[in-house]
Amino acid sequence: MSRPGRDDSPDRLYTLTGGRAHATPDSPFDLVTLVVAECDPTTGMQSEHAAILRLTRLPTAVVELAAELKLPVSITKILLGDLLAAGRVSARHPRKAAVPDPDVLEQVLVGLRNL
Amino acid sequence: MTAPNLPGERPTARALLPAPLLTAVLAALAVAGAVARAPESVRVPLALGAGAGALLLTAAVAVAVHATQNARITRRRLEAVTLDAGRLLQDRARQSTEFDQERVQLTQELTHERARHAAELTRERARLTAELEEERARLTTANARLTERARRAEQERSTALSATANAASRMQALATGMLADLRAMEERHDDEDVLADLLHLDHRTAQAGRLADSVAVLTGARSGRRWARPIAMESILRGAMGRISGYRRVRVHSACEAAVAGHAAEGVMHALAELLDNAANFSPPTAEVHVYVEEVPAGVIVSVEDSGLVMGDIQLRRAERAVSGDDAELGGLTGTRLGLAVVGRLSRKYGLTVSFRPSARGGTGVLVLVPQDILVPEQVAAPPQGVSTLPQVGRAGAVEGAGAGTAVRADSASAAPDPSTEADPAPHAPSTPAPDPFPTHESPGHSAAALPDDLPAGRSEDRSEGLADGLPKRRRGRALAEAEREQRERVRARAAEAAGSGGSARTSGVPGTSGATGSTGHARPAESAALSPARAIRFSSFRQAVRGTLTDQSDPATPAPAETPEPSTPAHTHPTPEGDPTS
How does pLDDT run across B185-217, given as a tens digit for each residue? Predict the structure, then answer.
């Protein structure tokens, strides 16, 4: 923002989401939700949607998507919500699958310290 | 004057008879006497001869009398005629005299009259000349006064115009700055309510900016902002939508790949915004405005169709005239109907063709032809910001290149002390020619292969755009702004990595971002097998995030590394991932 207006985009954030700032209440997305594309981008699609679909060919976290798109996370969540509603992406929360029980982790940590 | 039929013109019988009769009687007497006295023998011849002689004598007398009478009559007539002629001559002489007198008199009168008229004329002429002089003097004075007034008015007008233009450009700058600030705030605040408010403000500010742009265009000032790169049609349309109040009612149907050149993008956007605003304002508040984009050989046609009021013929003509931009006068503008005049100015400037027609939707359709010479194919155009079309590998390399968070603010002059990155002194960076047409962080192997051979080993990843002092370095054939943006992107990616790789990294990463432009030009790893580390990196960020939640859940006493204080200087955009993942 050192030289505003020189090289940022003319898109305003509200035009990306049609003025919405709130994700749907049942939105499954938080910062670390893994998003996977279910289809390829099609023509005529909003460019952010297309970009999300390209980025999520491999599972990608919401926060990374936001960073790549250079959009605020809330906006990214709304865009993802649209895609999810259309069935173009699926969401998976890493906590459920990838993370073991915190107690186990703590025990491992204690064990490591004791080494 | 001719001889009248006088009674004595012809000798009358009464005047003729006496003399022949007397002669006849005398002759008869003489004959009778002679016969009587003559002897018997000669009596008969004598009687015959004497009778014949007497008859001849009588006839001669009659002829003589007649001739005498005639002569007398003729003489009398001659006298009468002579008398008439004398009288006529006298008359003529008299008339001639009269005529002469008359002529003299008339000549005198004429001369007199002429003199009088000449005098009058001269007088009149003198009077008129005087009046003329007076009038001319008066007019000259009036003319001078009016000229002065016109000059002053013109001066005032140009002063007012330039003041307005100046004010408008300041308002534009203000609006642009506010939009940038708002964007920064939108990046910073995660709360959805705050974000909603910010978006609302953003929208209002964008509309205010459009108004300032309109005033600037009408006053002939330069248009608001210049884009350093081509702007994709989608962004053009969304930029136009974002400046009108009813943008939610606008539906865009576009598969257009073209982009508008940077210098013209703002004008096209503004013109479209005015047309969209018209369409939205003159249609029912619930009706949608549809925008279709179509590529044709002459350029790109944007059609804006509303289902509102149908324009009559006169209105259509007036609108066409307004958007033709032929009359560049400010007269006839009203405060509320600036839009079409603005469109006209912009079309004239950028060669847009705008036409109106009744829409099949029941309202009015506007066709805008964006000519080919301000268009750039999408392949040439940079991808719109915020959308990365890079492959996963490239992204991974960039993330990996960030290394530990300390590298973000590592002194760029010295080699980053990270084992995973190779030292890369900054001074070499600027001299590197750009081997890659896609000037963002892309696959390292590609760059390494394309680099010149004389570069020292370990510098294969030398694509840094930054100098040691933090100034962005422009490669040949690239805009400085692009280099700067890329530099920021890279820093942001590193900050993201820093945020994801541990508490210490995050604490150092946040201030590092604010000094981001000053901390570039350091090493990048020569990443050949990028895929698996990329995945590792990505999961490390998850791990970090999860660890944050876990710490919160399991051990509240443990100081959460994520609680980085918000930096006090909000002037810089912070990348999103640095935010507290636990929030």
Answer: 888 887 888 888 999 999 999 999 998 988 888
* Same domain, yes or no: B72 and B151: yes
CB contact A103 to B (< 8 Å): yes
- Encoded tokens for B48: 């015959």
Min Cα–Cα distance to chain A from B341, Å: 23
Residues of B in contact with A61 (CB under 8 A): 538, 541-542, 545
B326 and B416 co-located in one domain: no
Q: Are B381 and B232 in contact (CB under 8 A)?
A: yes
Contacts of B546 in chain A (CB under 8 A): 32, 94-95, 98-99
**pTM value?**
0.53
Q: Is residue B571 part of a domain?
A: yes
CA dist list (Å): B133 to B129, B137, B144, B263, B379: 6, 6, 16, 60, 76
Domains, chain A, with CATH or none: 13-114 (1.10.10)
Identify the closest residue of chain B to A106 by CA–CA distance.
B554
Q: Closest residue of B to A24, CA-based?
A: B192
Residues facing residue A89 across a β-bridge: A37
CATH number at residue B300: 3.30.565.10
Query: How sure is the predictor about B471, in pLDDT bands with cuts at 50, 70 and 90?
Result: low
- Cβ contacts of residue B136 below 8 Å, gap of 6+? none
Calpha distance B489→A8 (Å, rounded): 12
Of B199, B550, B579, the CB nearest to A13: B199
Q: Which residues pair with B259 in a beta bridge?
A: B232, B376
CA distance B446 to chain A (A): 20
What is the C-alpha to C-alpha distance for residues B550 and B185, in angstroms, rounded to an integer? 29
Distance CA A74, CA A63 (A): 10
Each residue of B335-362: b (16+ CB within 10 Å) or e?
Answer: eeebbbbbbbbbbeebebebebeebebe
Count how many Cα atoms sit within 13 Å of the Cα of residue B158 in the half-sphere of its side chain.
Answer: 5
Q: Are strands A60-61 and B231-232 parallel, antiparallel or unpaired?
A: unpaired
* A100 vs A105 pLDDT, higher one: A105
Instruction: Name the DSSP letter for residue B369.
Output: E
**For tokens 């003199």, what's the residue?**
B115
For residue B509, give the nearest of B562, B473, B548 by alpha carbon: B562
Find residues 28-47 of chain A whose CB sits inside 8 Å of chain B. Answer: 31-32, 34, 43-44, 46-47
> What span, in angstroms and rounded, lies between the C-alpha atoms of B176 and B170?
10
Residue at token pair 């324009």 = B311
Structural domain range at position B363: 226-376
Residue B208 inside a domain? The answer is no
Contacts of B190 in chain A (CB under 8 A): 72-74
The interface predicted TM-score (ipTM) is 0.79
For chains A and B, count residue pairs whose Cβ atoms are closer than 8 Å. 194
A48–B387 C-beta distance less than 8 A: yes
Yes or no: say if B273 and B240 are a contact pair by the CB < 8 Å rule: yes
Rounded distance between C-alpha atoms, residue B318 and residue B328, angstroms: 15
